[in-house]
Amino acid sequence: MVKIVLENVHVDFPLLQQDQRSLKRLLSAPLKPMRITLDPRERPILQALKGVNLTLSEGDRVAVVGPNGAGKSTLLRVLAGIYPPTSGRAVIDGRVGALLTVGLGMRDEVSGFDNIEFCLLLLGASPHDIDQKREDIVAFTGLGEFIHLHVGAYSAGMRTKLAFAIATSIDPQILILDEVFGAGDAAFVRKAEERMIELIQRSRILVFASHAPALIERFCSKAIWVEGGLIKEFGDVKTVSDAYLASAQG
Amino acid sequence: MGPLWLIATTAIFVIALAFVYSTLFKVALAEYLPFIAVGVVLWNFISAICAESVMAFVESEVYIRQIRRSPFVYVFRVISRNIIVFLNQFLVAAAVLVYFGGVSAFNIFLAGFGIALLFLQTLWIVPLVGLIGARFRDLLPIIQSALQICFFVTPVIWPAKALAGKEWVALANPFHHIIDIVRMPLLGGTPAFASYIVVGVMSILGLAAAHLFYSRFRFRIIYWL
C-alpha cells in the first residue's frame, strides 16, 4: 500500500551563516509570522515547518499552493524523504521519484548516451531497465547521432530536452513535482506535456507544487495550502485553490 | 589523457626528488628511488583522502538536496575516486620496483594486505571528517596545513632510521605505521609487528568513532549544507 503519513512534522533550519548582531536586529523587528527564533540551546533557527500533519494515500493527486517562503519546497522535500523531520514522524511507503530540478547529475564532459545511464542510476532506476529506457529517451529527444556527442557541445534546447526526457522516464509510485518543466521548441512542448501526463498517470500518489491554477486543476483533485510553515487548508482542489487565490489578491 | 598526466607528474616528482635527496642523504639511488617512489605514492593517497573527505558531503550538496540517497554514496564517491588515482600512480612505484629487481611473491602478498588495511582506513576517515567538514567550514584549511606538517614529520621522503636516537618521532606517528606496512614488504623487508597493532587499533577506534558520529548525525547533514 503506497502512502505517506506526516505526524507533527517540524523542520528547523539552523542559521549557521547568520551573524549574531544582524540576527538580533531581525529578532527585534516585528515580523508577522515569527519563524526565526532560537532553539533550546539559544542557536538561531528558521522554522520552515511548524507541526505538519498530513496523510496521503493511494490515488491522491495533491497540489501544493502557497506564497513564496511558505514552506512549499520544504514540505515537498520532506515528502520525498530528502529532509528528515527535526521532530515528529514521516512515514513514506513507496518508491519516491522527486523531480525538483531538471538536469540533476548531468555532466558536460560525457556523451548524452553515458549521461542517460548515470542519471537514471542516480534517480534510482534498476540497471536492467536502462537499455530499454535509453532507447525510449533517445527516440523522444530526437537527438539522433548527437546522443554520442559530449553534452558540453549541446545547445541549451538539446540539453533541456535530454534532461527532461531522462527525468520523466522514471516510474515512481510517489511522484513529487516542483513547478515547471518546459522550454524547447513548440513541438517539443506538446510532446513534453504528453510525456508528463503519462508520468503522472503511472504514479499512485502525486504531489505537485505550482503557481498556475490551470495546471493544478487539471492534474490534481486535492490541494494543500501552506502558509507560514503550517497547513492552512487541505481539501478539494477547487475550494482550496480559490480560497488561496482570493487571499493572495485581497 | 587524464590518467597519463597523473602517472607522468608522479614519475617526474619522484625521480627529481630521488635525484636530489639521494645526494643530500648520501644514499645510493638504487636504494633510495624505490623507497621514495612507494612513499610518495602512498602519501599522495593518504593526504588526498584526508583533504577531500572534508568536502565529501559539501561537494555533493546538489545531489543531497535533490534526491534521497544514503549519504554513504557520497563517501564512496571520494573513496573510489582516490583509489583509482592511487592505482594509476602506483604504476610508477611498480615500474621502479620492477626495474630495481622486483619483489618476492610473499612480500607482494604482505604489501597487498597492507594496502587492504590502508583502504580500510578510508571507511572511517571519509565519513567522520566529512561530517565535521560539513558542519565546520573552516576545517579544510586546518586539515591542509596539518597535512603539510605531517608530510615533513613523517618518514615519507626520509628513512625513519635517520632519526638516530629519536625514533619515537616516527613510532608515535600513525602515518608512519600505515605507510610502513605497505612499503616495507615492497622493499624486501618485513614490517614491525607493532605497526600492525597500531593500524589495527586505529581501525577499530576509527570505525567505532565514525559509526557513532555517522549514526548520530547522518540526518543532520542536509541541514548543515
Order of helical and strand elements of chain B: HHHHHHHHHH
For the record, give the distance between the C-alpha atoms at the N and C termini of chain B, rounded to a whole number. Answer: 34 Å
Oligomer: heterodimer
CATH class term of the largest domain in chain A: Alpha Beta
Q: Could you tell me the radius of gyration of chain A in angstroms?
A: 20 Å
**Shape designation of chain A:** globular
Q: How many separate helices of chain B?
A: 10
Mean pLDDT, all residues of chain A: 83
Q: What count of structural domains of chain A?
A: 2
Largest interface: A-B, 19 and 12 residues
* Global geometry of chain B: globular
Total beta strands of chain A = 10
Mean residue pLDDT of chain B: 92
Helicity range of the residues of chain A?
25-40%
Question: What's the CATH topology name of the largest domain in chain A?
Answer: Rossmann fold
Could you characterize the architecture of this molecule?
Chain A has 250 residues and is of the alpha/beta class. Chain A has two domains: 3-95 and 209-249, Rossmann fold; 102-203, Rossmann fold. Helix content of chain A is 36%, strand content 27%. Chain A has eight helices and ten strands. Chain A has a six-stranded mixed beta sheet, with helices on both faces. In chain A, helix 3 (112-122) packs across helix 4 (130-141) and helix 4 (130-141) runs antiparallel to helix 5 (156-167). Chain B is mostly helical. Chain B has one domain (4-224). Chain B is built from ten helices and no strands. Chain B has helices at residues 2-24, 29-54, 61-66, 72-99, 105-135, 139-153, 168-171, 174-186, 193-217, 221-224. In chain B, helix 2 (29-54) packs antiparallel against helix 4 (72-99), helix 5 packs antiparallel against helix 8 (174-186) and helix 5 (105-135) packs parallel to helix 9 (193-217). Chain B starts with a helix and ends with a helix. The chains are: A alpha/beta (250), B mainly alpha (225). The A-B interface holds A 12-14, 16, 77, 80-84, 86, 96, 98, 100-101, 104-105, 122-123 and B 62-69, 219, 222-224.
